[in-house]
Write the structure tokens for this entry.
Amino acid sequence: MRYLTDRKRAEGKGAAHAGTEHHWSMTVTAVILAFLVPTWIYVFGHALGGTRAEVLATFARPFPAILTALVLLVSMRHFAKGATTTIEDYLRGSARKSALIAVYSLAALIAAVGLWALLRIMIS
């Protein structure tokens, strides 16, 4: 005879069987962004209004470039996971699959274009 509590029977029985991992992933990326974004806004604010050469010189330095790359990557991951939750809650069938592909593609495209632009700035 098995003696299982209600909690033990319910563990891992969510719709995706990964709710806790998803929640922690979103929490971690949100906390990381809470520190990265204000720092990036400060750096970006100092470059804002400068000449093209001054802006290129700012983002050619290692700290602003790495910070911008981290903001791009972490925010696009956070966006994709958050949008995935919304899509999974409200869409079904082929519309769900198409929307998921579109969201992941959009996030990857934005991150890739941003990183490519940073590389171009750093090389020039």
Observations:
- Residues 93-123 form the longest helix (31 residues).
- The two ends are 72 Å apart (CA to CA).
